[in-house]
Write a structure and sequence with these properties.
about 50% helix, six-stranded parallel beta sheet, 21 strands, binds ligand 26V, nine-stranded mixed beta sheet
């Protein structure tokens, strides 16, 4: 290794000898080239059985530092770079972030790939090579603007490969090309992420913003991640994309089976396919189709495919459960229709209950129902989520197939969410625990022994302060804003959605603003931090961003408030921004309406980095609470049973709560106050105001009072620095459970059996 690293120094000197200036880009390229060579020297993981993790999203984030962590050369590389007069951050800034996902689901897939390779399990990822990832977010006039995000350039880690597959559609064939990226693990072996692209994509189809010609499927298929699906052309394009992904996947898997001599009638002995949400569901149909082409009868094909496929559900939100009109499928992928009808008939024989039908009475095809009927396993992503699936959302299926249902509580890669994003904390923990928590997460528990050791606690707090200072510098450079590293950092970063209730946090800000104006100054400045993208067509979500940006402006310009309260919105929140803000945060806002957040994974990242959760009894928050005990977490709000009852009885009326409480009324009214209307857009503010008053589908007003109280308690407790430090320590100590290595081991033991 030593000798090889010299190669990097030599190449840098070579540039200097030619009397040229060395740029950060040169250094990035030299290091990347070196690392690619090293990774390619490691063997591909091969075992008897192989997993294919198929997903429409892989929210990878930058790969440079993580790959260096996994190769075990990060600290050495940092030294070389610093010797040359650069910082590691500058070098890392050269890489463009592949934003091939929206949020939790895509980031989970990326963490899983990292764990699979690190556990030395044979498992590849399969997905799509979108030319434009999740849009880049800009703020203008306190509003979100979407800019196309072309993510790949010379800094990418992918290598182009030719393949000979042909994907059939109603009007002919489309041809793919393949981009491969090695996923290297610490055991010096690797798996591969395969992303398929359409051969003849035409980027010039992109018009203003993220608009483009949706009809030209033969040129636009892989242009965008999640193209807008508000019209028929957009929805059909989604079907085209999904089918392209699964057809390429199925052809690739069968090709590999042939090469390796796996017998097709025993394919389930060799292959397991994990279907990440319903976007790849058509792989079930495509496999059956291809097996039929190879001469199998429908029943035989169904049996083989059943043994191979397993499905993960990631949400109970009705609007997010995919159904496609039968007619759309017929128009786009007619070759699957015969199979869909056959499966539908078989399943209607099995169970006449309409709630389990594949094709419903409105001629809509329920993708999840295909997965559950045919797949061998159905899992939720946190305990409460799996329970709700079994008891409520999918209860008729659970009755039919009780043994298929299982829980796999999500996890996060400690290589990224500790070693990469917080090397200071990582190295310190490694030192005092005399063991590496990123490969043995359970050793973190030993930290409990230091719970009364003031020196350890002070060191954890020093690291936190250091991460805050780094972040403050970063934000000054990026957004030109001045922040105070001595403030308490109260952070809510995640996709913008009403169920996640950023609007409730906005009501807190209003509460605090009014309090401060009335003379109740907090002991320490509060820095409320947001990061969130709203789906471009999701009007109310954009209205919530608007309110938050308007509040930020009002507070910024009010000298009586700004020394005590600041609102900071991170522009274009993505994986790289998460890596910076999470280690700097004190409070982790996880305030979804109970029952709605399937798991959450941000909550785990904050916990590992020593932030304290302010959360509802939802998703994995419940498991965090159980691990740390109620004295080390701040929980509030109505529980999931109460919420589910309200939905069932249709008896939640936000206006009643508004009218019954002067406090709530004052907060909600502020949204349309004169000073808000002065800085904001009237239409947008009034729309959100009315939404909260007349609908409030995600019950903000149900929990807002308890939320405010709970946060106030938390801010008070923060001043007891030792007590807070102890809470930090306990949270870090108990976070080992949330390593995605644990999650992957569970998948492997119960489902994959590699
Ligand atoms: C999708 C959509 C699409 C249409 C409009 C509204 C909407 C709302 C939510 C979704 C969620 C898609 C699935 C998803 O990303 N689920 C997330 O998966 C994470 C990993 O399991 C989990 O931690 C999050 O709680 C869950 O929301």
């Amino acid at each position: 290794m030593e000798k090889n690293l010299d190669m990097i120094v030599e190449q840098i000197s070579k540039i200097k000898k030619e009397n040229k200036k060395v740029y950060t880009k040169d250094v990035y390229e030299i290091i990347q080239k070196y690392m690619k060579l090293e990774i390619n020297k490691t063997p591909v993981i091969e075992q008897e059985r192989k997993l294919y993790y198929i997903s429409a999203e892989f929210l990878l984030g930058k790969m440079l530092t993580c790959n260096a962590v996994n190769l075990g050369i990060l600290e050495d590389l940092k030294k070389i770079v610093e010797n040359e007069g650069f910082t590691w951050d500058e070098i890392q800034d050269e890489e463009k972030e592949p934003s091939l996902g929206n949020g939790g689901l895509g980031r989970l897939a990326a963490c899983f790939l990292d764990s699979i390779a690190n556990l030395n399990l044979a498992g590849d990822g399969i997905g799509l090579y979108y030319h434009f990832g999740l849009f880049e977010q800009k703020f203008k006039d306190n509003k979100q603007i979407e800019v196309p995000n072309k993510w790949f350039d010379t800094t990418s880690w992918f290598t182009k490969k030719d393949v000979l597959f042909k994907v059939p559609y109603k009007n002919g064939y489309l041809e793919p090309i393949l981009y491969d990226m090695e996923i290297v693990g610490r055991q010096h072996t690797h798996n591969i992420l395969h992303l398929f692209d359409l051969k003849n994509v035409d980027e010039s189809l992109v018009r203003e913003g993220i608009e483009f010609d949706k009809q030209a499927v033969d040129k636009n298929l892989t242009l965008f991640l999640y193209p807008d699906d508000s019209d028929e052309a957009g929805r059909k394009l989604r079907i085209y994309q999904q089918y392209f992904m699964v057809s390429c996947a199925a052809q690739m898997i069968l090709e590999e089976a042939d090469q390796r001599g796996w017998k097709i009638d025993e394919l389930d002995q060799y292959v397991v396919v994990q279907i990440n949400d319903t976007h790849p569901t058509m792989i079930i149909l495509e496999f059956i189709r291809l097996l039929k082409e190879r001469g199998f009868m429908l029943n035989q094909a169904m049996k083989i495919v059943s043994g191979m496929c397993a499905y993960t559900n990631h949400t109970i939100l009705a609007e997010a459960l995919e159904t496609w009109p039968y007619s759309y499928l017929k128009d786009t992928v007619p070759q699957l229709i015969e199979i869909i009808e056959a499966l539908d008939a078989v399943m209607k024989e099995r169970n006449s209950n309409p709630s389990t039908a594949i094709i419903d009475e409105n001629q809509n095809v329920h993708m999840a129902h295909i997965d559950i009927h045919i797949g061998k396993s159905v899992n939720g992503v946190a305990k409460i989520h799996t329970d709700i699936l079994k008891e409520t959302e999918l209860k008729d299926f659970y009755k039919m197939y009780p043994t298929k249902f299982n829980n796999k509580t999500n996890g996060i890669s400690f290589r990224r969410w500790l070693c990469t994003c917080n090397p200071e904390l990582y190295l310190y923990l490694k030192k005092i625990l005399k063991n590496d928590p990123s490969s043995n997460p359970n050793v973190l528990k030993r930290l409990i022994m230091f719970a009364d050791d003031e020196e350890v606690i002070r060191t954890l707090q020093k690291i936190k302060l250091h991460k805050k200072q780094e972040w403050v510098k970063h934000m000054k450079k990026k957004q030109g804003i001045d922040l105070n590293p001595n403030a308490i950092f109260d952070t809510q970063v995640k996709r913008l959605h009403e169920y996640k209730r950023q609007q409730m946090n906005a009501l807190y800000i209003i509460y605090k603003l009014l309090k401060i104006r009335r003379g109740w100054k907090p002991q320490r400045p509060i820095q409320v931090i947001f990061g969130a993208k709203a789906a471009p067509a999701y009007t109310i979500a954009k209205d919530i961003i608007h309110v938050l940006l308007c509040l930020a402006e009002i507070i910024r310009n009010d000298a009586s408030v700004s020394p005590y309260l600041q609102v900071c919105f991170i522009e274009n929140y993505n994986v790289s921004e998460a890596e910076k803000v999470i280690p700097a945060s004190d409070i982790s806002e996880q305030i979804s309406l109970a029952s709605k957040e399937a798991s959450g994974t941000g909550n785990m990242k904050f916990m590992l980095n020593g932030a304290i959760t302010l959360g509802t009894n939802d998703g994995a928050n419940i498991e965090i609470a159980k691990l740390v005990g109620k004295e080390n977490i701040y929980t509030f709000g109505k529980d999931s049973n109460t919420v589910i009852e309200h939905y069932k009885n249709c008896d939640y009326v936000s206006k009643d709560l508004y009218e019954q409480s002067d406090e709530i009324k004052e907060l909600v009214d502020f949204i349309v106050s004169d000073e808000m209307l002065e800085v904001g857009n009237q239409e947008s503010l009034i729309r959100l105001y009315r939404e909260i008053l007349n609908k409030d589908w995600f019950m903000t007003l149900l929990d807002v009072e308890e939320y405010i109280q709970c946060k106030e308690q938390m801010l008070n407790d923060y001043e007891n620095r030792l007590k807070w430090g102890k809470m930090m320590l306990k949270n870090i100590a108990m976070s080992g459970f949330f390593s995605s290595d644990r999650t992957i081991n569970e998948y492997n033991e119960d489902i994959w059996k590699i």
